[in-house]
Amino acid sequence: MLSVIICTYNRDKFLYDALRHVAVNIFPTEEYEIILVNNNSTDTTESECQRFASDFPQVQFRYFVEIKQGLSYARNRGIDESRGDVLLFLDDDSFVKPEYL
Fold first, then answer.
1. What residue ranges of the chain have pLDDT lower than 50?
2. What's the predicted TM-score (pTM) here?
């Protein structure tokens, strides 16, 4: 299993497209998960994640809030929550190609 970990803070305007680019890849959905770690965002990050989960129910998507501020806290939370043998960190504004995974 591959765990794609995306940590975010107040980047709602980019987040849905970043998640969508991962979801439309050619890698089998049963072989990866997306872990989204919200690092105390005050924007619409949560609703964007809910929209993504609704639009792509075939993707194993899990959402967490990390209250300790900072990228290292968010990444460590992502590691703790992941189920994968391989961890892949993506920025919250990354657009990956369909064959990336």
1. none
2. 0.95
